[in-house]
């Protein structure tokens, strides 16, 4: 079944039932070490995870690691250009849950992203990236502890589908010709627009299915959070891209109000309801005027549409959501993508789950990680209905590779997410305690050491892992 690798002789498989993992006490878990600093951070992370499981379960539970190959290491073993061997795909398919270090993607030419390929091959449609603060972590922000968000990033489509054509290529030029001469003129709203002939062309598909399954998972997650964090914000650039980014927002609201009607309220509905709560005799027209600041300058048709919206909301949910009941529901709102970047800095405590398309989530997860201490503190999980791969938000950080200096925190915290996914909360809690206490004690790697006031002598990557284990207690 495998060409060049041999699974562990002990251990059992994780299986999935209705999207939930069924986990034996001795699961076999494939891991990819990763390129660049993967050589430093993976061994450190593995050591911490093993120590936590051993301490939490005293030998009754154990991870049986299965080394599989991707990236440079795979080419060394399998031959030139064998970046993602079939053995690796077979192992992840067979064992369901895997963890990986970062993998290199060259800019401009060469192979497309192995990281993205893995997400697409296993349909890991939800990229979950929590950004929360560990006390004592230095940050460029005054109140980094106020940020506690979980980014739910759609993980399989958008520009990451990688459908693009090079400038000057035969198909690219043909496509531009068809667009300029046939499709754009056939679409009146595009007027006389034309694509410059020397353009590269990329396609940005955003599907209803892809958007809705991501938002569905985000709302399901919100249901498990404490009441004050039960909020899902749909992030989009729908003011500019109405049929892709704008549609993501609309489809997100549709999932909330059709599949989770009793559990959710949209921000706009909450305004309509609270207007009536404040003034029970308010007319539909006055209510409409208050929810739409530009109401008075709208066309009669548009005004009538908003009045109808108010009427429908009151008719359909006043009984279940009115009189303040909506305050107990999950709030679903939306924010424009550029605005959310400033909002997480200026009003961080107003946000909880941020549901995004692929590209916006990629940008936003690095930015949010920076607020709570940098990419060394940014974990992640790629989750599908029948498998999951855990990995940090950051890349290979090549200039630090092999120096035993990089912060392994992000991969260790990705391991914590994996332990929680397995239901091994006791081990996950030990790692979080160890990491939190090490940081609070000023035992940190270079990235955090240089930000501390006064600066401290940095620990090596491997020493930081040891410090975490010592702080398990
Ligand atoms: N999922 C994946 O495997 C990903 C892979 N990549 C790939 O990684 C390669 C390198 O990408 P690049 O743009 O340099 O981005 P990286 O995220 O690899 O690194 C950029 C900078 O972020 C900081 N950083 C990253 N990781 C850590 C860490 N663990 N601890 C402390 N600081 C960290 C370092 O800053 P400083 O030097 O200032 O301390 C580093 O130089 C590319 O090929 C890219 O495509 C990128 C993202 C995700
Ligand atoms: O695969 C890559 O090279 C980049 C991926 C990335 O930036 C991410 O997943 O956040
Ligand atoms: Mg990224």
From TrEMBL:
Marked site positions, Critical for catalysis: 160, 237
Positions bound to D-threo-isocitrate: 113, 115, 119, 129, 153
N6-acetyllysine: residues carrying this PTM: 142
Cofactor binding notes: Binds 1 Mg(2+) or Mn(2+) ion per subunit.
Residues annotated as domain Isopropylmalate dehydrogenase-like: 28-468
Gene3D superfamilies, sorted: Isopropylmalate Dehydrogenase (3.40.718.10)
Annotated Mg(2+) binding sites: 362
Catalytic activity: D-threo-isocitrate + NADP(+) = 2-oxoglutarate + CO2 + NADPH
Positions where Phosphoserine occurs in the chain: 113
Self-association state and partner proteins as the record states: Homodimer.
PANTHER family given in the database record: ISOCITRATE DEHYDROGENASE [NADP]
Family: Belongs to the isocitrate and isopropylmalate dehydrogenases family.
Name the record gives this protein: Isocitrate dehydrogenase [NADP]
């Amino acid at each position: 079944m495998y060409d060049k690798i041999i699974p562990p002789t002990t251990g059992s498989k994780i299986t999935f039932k209705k999207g939930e993992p069924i986990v034996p006490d001795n699961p076999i878990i494939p891991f990819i070490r990763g390129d660049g600093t993967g050589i430093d951070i993976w061994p450190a992370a593995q050591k911490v995870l093993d120590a936590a499981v051993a301490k939490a379960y005293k030998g009754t539970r154990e991870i049986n690691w299965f080394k599989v190959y991707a990236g440079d290491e795979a080419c060394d073993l399998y031959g030139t250009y064998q970046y993602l061997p079939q053995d690796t795909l077979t192992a992840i398919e067979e064992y369901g849950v895997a963890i990986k270090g970062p993998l290199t993607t060259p800019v401009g030419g060469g192979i497309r992203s192995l990281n993205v390929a893995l997400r697409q091959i296993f349909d890991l449609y939800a990229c979950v990236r929590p950004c929360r603060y560990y006390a004592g972590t230095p940050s460029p922000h005054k109140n980094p502890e106020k940020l506690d968000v979980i980014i739910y990033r759609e993980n399989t489509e958008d520009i990451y589908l990688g459908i693009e054509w090079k400038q000057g290529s035969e198909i690219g030029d043909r496509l531009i010709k068809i667009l300029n001469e046939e499709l754009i003129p056939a679409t009146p709203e595009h007027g006389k627009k034309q694509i410059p002939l020397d353009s590269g062309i990329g396609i940005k598909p955003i599907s209803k299915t892809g958007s809705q399954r991501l938002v569905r998972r985000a709302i399901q997650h919100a249901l498990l959070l404490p009441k004050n964090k039960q909020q899902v914000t749909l992030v989009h650039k729908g003011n500019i891209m109405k049929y892709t980014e704008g549609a993501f927002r609309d489809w997100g609201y549709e999932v909330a109000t059709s599949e989770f009607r009793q559990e959710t309220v949209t921000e706009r509905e909450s305004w309509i309801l609270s207007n009536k709560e404040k003034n029970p005799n308010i007319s539909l027209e006055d209510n409409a005027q208050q929810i739409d600041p530009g109401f008075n300058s709208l066309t009669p048709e548009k005004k009538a549409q908003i009045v109808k919206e108010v009427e429908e909301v009151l008719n359909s949910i006043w009984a279940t959501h009115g009189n303040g009941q909506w305050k107990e529901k999950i709030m679903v709102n939306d924010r424009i993508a550029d605005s959310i970047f400033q909002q997480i800095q200026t009003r961080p405590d107003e946000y909880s789950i941020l549901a995004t398309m692929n590209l916006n989530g990629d940008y936003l997860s690095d930015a949010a990680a920076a607020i709570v201490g940098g990419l060394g503190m940014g974990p992640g999980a790629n989750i599908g209905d029948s498998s999951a791969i855990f990995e940090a938000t950051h890349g290979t950080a090549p200039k630090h590779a092999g120096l035993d200096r990089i912060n392994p925190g992000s991969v260790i915290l990705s391991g914590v997410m994996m332990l929680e996914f397995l239901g091994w909360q006791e081990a996950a809690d030990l790692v979080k305690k160890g990491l939190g206490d090490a940081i609070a004690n000023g035992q940190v790697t270079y990235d955090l050491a240089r930000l501390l006031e006064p600066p401290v002598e940095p620990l090596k990557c491997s020493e930081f892992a040891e410090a975490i284990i010592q702080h398990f207690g």
